[in-house]
Amino acid sequence: MCQRFNGVHNCREFPSLLALNGYIQASRALMITSIVCGTFGLLLALIGVQCSKAGGENYVLKGRLAGTAGVLFIFQGLCTLIAVSWYAFNITQEFFNPLHAGTKYEIGEGLYMGWCSAVLAIAGGACLTCSCQMGTEEKYRLPYQAKGTVYSGPAPTRSVAASTYGRNAYV
Fold it and tell me: What's the pLDDT at 95?
């Protein structure tokens, strides 16, 4: 780390990344885990949404991929929340410690952004996990079937439904 004051260089080498405090190293590891989980969750979510052409027309597999992506997003949010909260706790402890001789840091915008991103990742992952279909096959009742029967085949096209009903059948 070099600083320049009026043409004079004042350089101080940082000895090692391993010389940092343990909570900073753990927070880095948690944030790297969070980034990896978020990246894989995003890829799985893009493949697992029903409107995507990737992955074919197997909606059961797409539902499972979307559910897995939701779990990864929840794990990402938890890792971020733990790392940011732990770092903020240690900053607060050092700030109010009268015996701390080092630099006293304050809670800044980066920590607030970390908390917001963690809450949004957890909420988005919960929504994605709850909205996916994890069943083995799609079962739904067609409008022209009796109330006790369930159709478990492919979805009817609009032309089949239109040919079955007259124009006054829709509400």
Answer: 84
Confirm if 24 and 87 have CB atoms less than 8 A apart: yes
Burial of 23 (0-12, 13-18, 19+ CB in 10 A): middle
Q: Which fold has domain 2-136?
A: Butyryl-CoA Dehydrogenase, subunit A; domain 3 (1.20.140)
Q: Residue range 107-124: average pLDDT?
A: 93
Which residue from 72, 74, 20, 11 is spatially nearest to 47, judged by alpha carbons? 72
pTM over 0.85: no
pLDDT of amino acid 40:
96
Q: Give residue 148's identity as a one-letter amino acid code.
A: G
DSSP 55-69: TTT-HHHHHHHHHHH
CA distances from 158 to 154, 155, 161, 162, 164 (A): 12, 9, 5, 6, 10
